[in-house]
Amino acid sequence: MNSPLTRADWAARADALKPETRPFIGGRFVESRSDATFDKYNPANGRLLARFAVGSAADVDAAVGAARNSFESGIWSHASVDHRRAVLERLADLIEAHAEELALLETLDVGKPIRDAIGIDLPLAVGILRHAAGAAAHLLGQVHPTDGRSLALAMRGPRGVVAGIVGWNFPLALAMQKLAPALATGNSLVLKPSELSSLSALRLAALAAEAGVPEGVVNVVPGIGATVGDAIAHHMDIDMLSFTGSSATGKRLMQASGASNMKRLVLECGGKSPNIVFDDAPDLDLVADGVMARMFWNQGQVCTAGTRLIVHRAVKDALVERLLARAGAIRPGDPLDPETSFGPLISAPQRDKVMGYIEAGRAAGARLLLGGEAPLAESGGFYVAPTIFDQVRPAMTIAQEEIFGPVLSIMDFTDTDEAVRLANDSIYGLSATVWTRSLETAHRMMRDLRVGEMVVRGTGTPSPGASFGAMPLEPHGQSGLGIESGLDGLAAYTALKSVQIFV
Ligand code: NAD
Questions:
Q1: Which ranges of 381-500 would DSSP assign to H, the alpha helix?
Q2: How much is the average pLDDT of 2-20?
Q3: Over 336-357, what HEC string results?
Q4: Which atom of ligand 1 is found nearest the CA of 479?
Q5: pLDDT tens, residue by residue, 69-93
Q6: Which of 55, 207, 291, 366 is 20 to 30 A away from residue 456, measured at CA?
């Protein structure tokens, strides 16, 4: 998707916006039961964007009650797969029809460049929805061989009330990663967006109602983790919780599940992903473009960002030279300007946290090659410049911890064993990119890297590959647990029931 709008057009639309901030429960926007509020700021200028209720356990009870009633009524849970697919396809059409409005909400909320919001985030969300809507019909049960007098089968049904708690880096797409599989398989949903990015999820709930999703099947409760999130985590009537966010919060949710009703968990958490470049890598300009995209897209606020560049010594200098030229040419700017490719970070605390990591890298003796400063302070926005550290050692904090900002750490190697050791030296195991033309090296990496997904790049130009939402992702290590996306991810939203019939 793209848009002919100019910066002035977007700014005028932003001024006219009156975004909804109230919870969406039982098919309508309602007042929160909590009086306390928090302020949400526009990352591009630091100005107040919206004021939300902090939310309460009573809000969550109301949302879970509405979800439970809708589930038990069978209006969605017993509807045919074809009916659910038709409604969800209608929702996808409506999202496309409102693409500019939703993209604007994303950019104002999280500071991502408007051209990415409309060109990447919107198609991503729609792709995830259309895939789940269509794939649900292919989620089959099992029929077992019998002796002719009985029937043994394992059937799948929706789990019931599913909750989603998500982070802020791709607000609409992360919300969709919970809504699409939950609804396609017949569940009712209670969604808590991040307190830093609730606008598009609330709009999505209204569009779902417009598309024909029955009331109570989609509920959205904005608020903070300590109130709304905690009440969801400990709720006794939520059957499953699917989470996207930090590993620290993921671990808390495991404890809360154990302390409450053993709700089923899917946890998609943090990463510190390696980008490994072998000395037979193709054209280094191609590699440099790929490393840049994997590292600095969304200002580095991507769970799968290739934040550790592990490069063969023979090609290191030539690659670093190309990276410095590209990263040095990036001009952070106003995300409402369609020319901008690099915006602010999500919040002042996130900017300060990233600057703290940069300081820790310097103090530990890593060599700062580029960036390291917080530019455009006069804008009031929360910017951090693209930053590159060389001579990073594996034990350094900047090599181990997820920074979630535009900071690249470079390490080098001479043989394949060393590359594998460096890549696996992490508590995380989300994603990896490998640059090689050798099939042998590719196979070795596929076998030995402890990650849930991998991209191997030779000379080929990237193509769209599998459609959005089609590939399953099972995070390894402390990057999470359970499976998201693909048929396996869809299956996680269903419960198996084995039945033997002897009549
Ligand atoms: P976060 O864990 O701080 O917050 C995520 C969500 O959890 C928010 O909605 C928050 O309100 C809620 N929350 C916070 N404390 C809670 C508590 N005690 N109980 C219940 N809910 C609570 O994470 P974040 O800063 O919003 O997001 C960044 C993180 O998300 C990074 O670690 C990133 O790697 C990860 N992420 C992972 C994926 C993936 O697919 N693996 C995708 C995007 C982001």
A1: 397-400, 416-424, 439-448, 486-491
A2: 94
A3: CCCCCCCCCCCCHHHHHHHHHH
A4: 41
A5: 999 999 999 999 999 999 999 999 9
A6: 366
Cα 479 to middle of ligand 1, angstroms: 12
User: Is residue 73 within 6 Å of ligand 1 at its C-beta?
Assistant: no
- The catalytically annotated residue of 195, 269, 303, 402 is 303
Q: Does the pLDDT of residue 2 top 90, yes or no? A: no
Q: Is the CB of 7 under 6 A from ligand 1?
A: no
- Which residue, 392, 341, 342, 352, is CA-closest to 374? 352
Closest-CA residue, ligand 1 atom 42, reads 303
Could you give the CA distance from residue 205 to residue 219 in angstroms, rounded to a whole number?
7
Q: Is 303 a catalytic residue?
A: yes
**Residue 455: strand pairing partners:** 433
Question: Looking at residue 229, what DSSP letter applies?
Answer: I
Best probe residue, ligand 1, of 128, 194, 234, 484 (max atoms within 8 Å of C-beta): 194
What is the whole-number distance in angstroms between the Cα of residue 338 and the centre of ligand 1? Answer: 29
CB-ligand 1 contact for 328 (6 Å cutoff): no
**Which protein residue has the closest C-alpha to ligand 1 atom 8?**
194
Residue 361 CA from chain centroid, whole number? 27
269 is catalytic: no
pTM: 0.97
Find the catalytic residue in 268, 453, 474, 484.
Answer: 268
**How is the chain split among helix, strand and coil, in percent rounded to 5?**
40, 20, 40
What percent of the chain is modeled with pLDDT above 90?
Answer: 94
Residue 337 has pLDDT above 80, yes or no: yes
Residue 408 Cα to ligand 1 midpoint, Å, equals 22
SS3 state at 133: helix
* pLDDT on residue 318: 98
Q: Partners of 462 in the beta sheet?
A: none
One-letter amino acid of 243: F
Residue 469's region, left for phi above 0, alpha for psi from -120 to 50, else beta, is left
Handedness of CA 117, 305, 43, 54 (dihedral sign): positive
Helix (H) or strand (E) holding 454: strand 453-457
Ligand 1 geometric centre to CA of 364 (Å): 28
Instruction: Categorize the per-residue pLDDT at 6 as very low, low, confident or very high, splitting at 50, 70 and 90.
Output: very high
pLDDT at 420: 98
Q: Dihedrals φ, ψ of 289, to 5°?
A: -60, -40
359-392: b or e for each residue (b if 16 or more CB lie within 10 Å)?
A: eebeeeebeebbbbebebeeebbbbbbbbbbbeb
d(Cα 16, Cα 54) in Å, to the nearest integer? 25
